[in-house]
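Q: How would the structure tokens look for this protein?
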Amino acid sequence: MVDRLANSEANTRRINIVENCFGAAGQPLTIPGRVLIGEGVLTKLCRKKPKARQFFLFNDILVYGNIVIQKKKYNKQHIIPLENVTIDSIKDEGDLRNGWLIKTPTKSFAVYAATATEKSEWMNHINKCVTDILSKSGKTPSNEHAAVWVPDSEATVCMRCQRAKFTPVNRRHHCRKCGFVVCGPCSEKRFLLPSQSSKPVRICDFCYDLLSTGDMATCQPTRSDSYSQSLKSPLNDVSDDDDDDDSSD
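A: Here is the predicted structure in token form.
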């Protein structure tokens, strides 16, 4: 089915519409063999609060961006190669329902659909696309993934020292290895994580000690280790900054 659609005029027209919605700031999306599988609005758990994002699933990439004008204009385009993606379902808790994790070596985050049916359809289509592209390339699924950041609102004190309280002066920072919200003194060190950056990135002292001794696996968080804490985040107890979780610290 995908192969038949690859060179169809309808598919080319749909992809061109997506490109036009992102404008000149977006990357070109039309390449031979690429098919737009589906699209929709998902709630992405960002650093500051959950926010609506427009997602587009192609047979080889996942694209998302901020909604400026629904179905007309989007910005801050992100492109994720599907060959690097793994997904995990998230249990419903409170106001956060119908969610799953999108995990890649460079970035991982949670998204939520409006209904259980929509969640199932998204996950099934993503898994099918990932399976197909890995089968064609002969590559194996990625075993490495970046930590899911704990939202700012979940930490009033440093998650490592448990003493430093966060204020407008004493800022929150995120460890790039475990995803915890930590204070400045607990995250003064940098370490090179090649899958995330070509330069050394901020990590907490706990992860730095483990990485320095080569114990990489111990400080790689499990889903319950860092992410489950974010499930308790109230949807309205956060600042209204225009995110994104791609911000520096």
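The chain is about 20% helix and 25% strand.

Confidence is low (pLDDT under 50) at residues 222-248.

Upvote if useful.
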